[in-house]
Hints:
CATH superfamily: Ribokinase
Radius of gyration: 18 Å
Number of strands: 11
CATH architecture: 3-Layer(aba) Sandwich
Number of helices: 9
Oligomer: single chain
Strand content: 15-25%
CATH class: Alpha Beta
Strand order of the largest sheet: 3-2-1-4-5-8-9-10-11
Amino acid sequence: MDKQKRIAAIHDISCVGRCSLTVALPILSAAGFDTSVLPTAILSTHTGGFEGFTYRDLTTDIKPISNHWQSLNIKFDALYSGFLGSFEQIDLVAELFDTFRSKETLVMVDPVMADNGVLYSVYSPEMAKGMSKLCAKADIIVPNLTEAAFLLEEEYVGENYSQEYIESLLKRLSVLGAKKIVLTGISFKRGTLGAASLDNGTGKISYAFNASVDGHFHGTGDVFSSTLLAGLLNNFSLEEALQIAVNYTLKCIQLTEKSGQEKRFGVCFERALPYLIQQLGLLTEER
């Protein structure tokens, strides 16, 4: 059996509402990885659909945790960042990337900060601008269309875009420095939804689509990104991992709809984990 790969997931913890670490940790663990965590903040609930949530910034904990890991000579096969708790964390996480990165380490940045044209309530324009510096250190970045606009300091176009615009956007994002770009929430035809990718090394642009479901489902971005990383670390190509992530995210949404789950609590990704394991080929001896 191959040596188990280790991931450091750098995200917040929302105590209620499935997103960030409460999504990334179980998905990556189910995909076969030793998943370490570095919490960037602790919230009583996530910020979408809930009011009066508590928020504790864990900026001062990042450096001591990183220092302890370094003293133990811990190695990581992937470094995966998402929601950051403060502007100062951008430089701290960038430093952590530099400290723990090796030639074999995959660095993924999901610049979690905005959706539907607006920043999350705990984010500032300064943080959004600074996030582009962190993206420059990544091998792969996974913004949605709103986050892409903030990263490039461009106007958010909403749903009025063409395939040519998406491909131009991918190329402009690649200038930030990442080797691979993935854009989520892409649709060119009613009833479908998916993602687009650009491999900067080959210049290849790929798309992955499946059926769309009406409504807003919290946490699906974290589900998608965590699944994408799971696919890549299980040696699938970017194009293959993209389709696996699109398919699994849809399965989670469908099961949420079927169960009647209140949407603000996130999608029922737990019930779809057997499907993910099957898609990753982990039930066979092939991988």
